[in-house]
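One-letter codes give the sequence; the fold follows as tokens. Both lines appear below.
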Amino acid sequence: MSTRNVKEHLADHLAIRDLLDRYTNGVNQRDWAAVEAVFTADATWEVGGNDIPAMNQSFSSAPAIAAGISSLVNPMSVLVQSNHAAVIEVNGNTATAYRPSTNSVFRRAPTTP
């Protein structure tokens, strides 16, 4: 990606960055309606992959994504997610965004007998 892509598609880059920020805020606030609102009906959310196979998760559709993420986050008593440098590439009517390092700090909620 080059700064040329940013200059030529500045409004798109800002809109995508806004979505990433609203997603992170929704997760931190456990506002699942806000999380659902940042995804389209045909979206897919994936985490894990080859780097973290034990965390492999994939959810498709905005409602399924919000429900899936909430099922992962709700058991945590504390979760703080922060955005880091997003790499965004706009190509015509499509765009890709990748956040190479999103940190989560968490502690599992105690289980009740």
Q: What stands out?
A: Strands lie at 44-47, 57-60, 76-82, 87-91, 94-98, 103-108.
